[in-house]
């Protein structure tokens, strides 16, 4: 393989992890020991918010009045598409029962989580779409209790548009808590009495680390880090659109990687030439984030062949991956590791992030090597059932006894032996007993 880094990142996804772990570990321990009072105290300290933690119906109604009708229509547009896609995902997997051998039936059941905690970022940006992606999808899955939380603004509470969207999507409880304290409250059942079985939603490095530390006590959507974009582009790509899309994701945060994989030096140079101007044209908050992100985490990788591009892209396993080439179908058929694929210049990660229908809560930091993004399936347990006739025990009981004894597990074998004696009194069987 002959690849060249025309731009190499100065930092990696692991930068700063040790300090983050220390802070989060301490906070989780304090909140678990001290309960609601400690969680509330952290909210006051970190968000400078002293209002109601449990958002009241009156506050929800008041928030709705602050959201103009055009924005409500746009939120509904996004919600309708995300819900429709989630419903199609739900329909793609079914309960069933099949007869594996005479008298032996095995089945699959789908059981939604009882309680899900949905985190909606509310810091630098008002992530209305994240409320749709998490809360809306959980409800389509059939989750009984959805607890949602978001960081409040001092003296104001949760962003009105976020609050309106959470309610529209069916959140059963809404907490005005952000960060680690919000994740802890949902996990430990603080303020609601409903302990989350599963946590979903994007967040900053502290939120991501809290979810990682709590994994095992609760399920989580994935081990998440800062948002990522990868773009595969050849000489036919429009450098303006490629650069715009790289910048669109770099604005997420100071540590959001943006990667370009290409076999065209001309395209790479053209994109490079546009990045600074596009970043500088952003509003202050986005410009500051995108400047740091592109400087520290941006990469442009030049490859010799499309096969090399595929290999490099799969190694990076981008959260979002766009294809801008004359061979989009070939890449679609051959790429294996990504969170969500955007095929052709006509679509963009920005559409998926906001309203086109697929879920934007996706694997980062290489997790796309082994998992996809959030879906209704992650809010559901796929469990199995088994039932048999007495006659089926004749065959299954002997095989189970012999395998168990081969493994040295006599108790397992005797559980089968007992049934054979009961159902087939007086018959002799080959049970794998020496002598």
Task: Describe this structure as you would to a colleague.
This protein is an alpha/beta fold and 435 residues long. The chain has 3 domains: 4-15 and 226-372, Nitrogenase molybdenum iron protein domain (Rossmann fold, 3-Layer(aba) Sandwich), CATH 3.40.50.1980; 35-221, Rossmann fold (3-Layer(aba) Sandwich); 389-435. It has 16 helices and 14 strands. The chain has helices at residues 17-34, 36-47, 57-66, 69-91, 128-141, 160-169, 179-188, 205-214, 239-250, 265-280, 284-297, 306-316, 328-334, 349-354, 393-406, 410-423, and strands at 4-7, 96-101, 104-112, 115-120, 145-150, 173-175, 198-200, 219-220, 229-233, 258-262, 299-302, 320-324, 340-343, 380-388. The strands form 3 sheets. It has a 6-stranded mixed beta sheet, sandwiched between helices. The radius of gyration is 26 Å and the shape is globular.
CATH topology label of the largest domain: Rossmann fold
Share of helix, binned? 40-55%
CATH architecture identity of the largest domain = 3-Layer(aba) Sandwich
User: In the residues, how many domains can be counted?
Assistant: 3
Q: What does the overall shape look like?
A: globular
Which parts are unreliable, with pLDDT below 50 for 5 consecutive residues or more? none
Strand residues, percent? 15-25%
Order of helices and strands: EHHHHEEEHEHEHEHEEHEHHEHEHEHEHH
What summary fits the major beta sheet? 6 strands, mixed
Chain-averaged pLDDT:
95
What gyration radius follows from the Cα positions, in whole Å? 26 Å
> What would CATH call the class of the largest domain?
Alpha Beta
**Going across the major beta sheet, what is the strand order?**
1-11-10-9-12-13
Task: Name the CATH superfamily assignment of the largest domain.
Answer: Nitrogenase molybdenum iron protein domain
Helix and strand content put the structural class at alpha/beta
Distance from N terminus to C terminus (CA atoms, Å) equals: 62 Å
Say how many strands there are: 14
Q: How many helices in DSSP terms?
A: 16
């Amino acid at each position: 393989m002959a690849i060249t880094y025309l731009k190499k990142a100065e930092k990696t996804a692991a930068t700063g992890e040790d300090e983050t772990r220390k802070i989060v570990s301490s906070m989780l321990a304090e909140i678990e020991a001290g309960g609601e009072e400690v969680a509330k105290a952290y909210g006051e300290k970190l968000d400078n918010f002293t209002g109601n933690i449990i958002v009241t119906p009156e506050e929800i109604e008041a928030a709705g009045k602050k959201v103009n009708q055009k924005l409500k229509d746009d939120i509904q547009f996004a919600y309708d598409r995300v819900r429709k896609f989630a419903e199609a995902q739900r329909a793609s997997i079914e309960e069933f029962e099949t007869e594996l051998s005479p008298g032996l039936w095995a089945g699959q059941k789908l059981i939604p989580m009882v309680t899900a905690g949905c985190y909606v970022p509310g810091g630098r940006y008002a992530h209305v779409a994240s409320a749709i992606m998490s809360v809306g999808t959980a409800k389509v899955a059939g989750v009984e209790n959805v607890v949602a939380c978001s960081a409040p603004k001092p003296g104001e509470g949760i962003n009105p548009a976020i609050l309106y969207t959470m309610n529209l999507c069916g959140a059963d409880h809404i907490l005005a808590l952000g960060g680690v304290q919000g994740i802890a409250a949902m996990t430990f059942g603080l303020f609601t009495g409903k302990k989350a079985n599963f946590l979903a939603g994007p967040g900053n490095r502290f939120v991501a680390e809290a979810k990682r530390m709590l994994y095992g006590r609760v399920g989580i959507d994935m081990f998440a880090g800062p948002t990522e974009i990868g773009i595969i582009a050849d000489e036919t790509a429009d450098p303006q659109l490629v650069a715009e899309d790289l910048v669109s994701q770099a604005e997420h945060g100071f540590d959001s990687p943006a990667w370009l994989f290409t076999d065209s030096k001309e395209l790479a140079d053209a994109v490079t030439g546009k990045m600074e101007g596009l970043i500088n044209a952003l509003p202050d908050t986005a410009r500051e984030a995108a400047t740091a992100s592109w400087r520290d985490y941006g990469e442009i990788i030049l490859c010799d062949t499309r096969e090399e591009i595929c290999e490099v892209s799969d190694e990076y396993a981008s959260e979002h991956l766009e294809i801008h080439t004359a061979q989009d179908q070939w890449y679609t058929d051959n790429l294996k590791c990504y969170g969500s694929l955007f095929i052709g210049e006509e679509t963009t990660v920005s559409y998926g992030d906001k309203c086109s229908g697929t879920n934007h809560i996706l694997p980062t930091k290489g997790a796309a090597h082994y998992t996809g993004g959030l879906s209704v399936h992650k809010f559901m347990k796929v469990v199995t059932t088994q039932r048999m006739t007495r006659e089926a025990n004749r065959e299954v009981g002997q095989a189970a006894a012999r395998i168990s004894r081969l493994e040295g597990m006599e108790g397992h074998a005797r559980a089968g032996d007992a049934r054979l004696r009961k159902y087939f009194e007086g018959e002799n069987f080959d049970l794998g007993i020496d002598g």
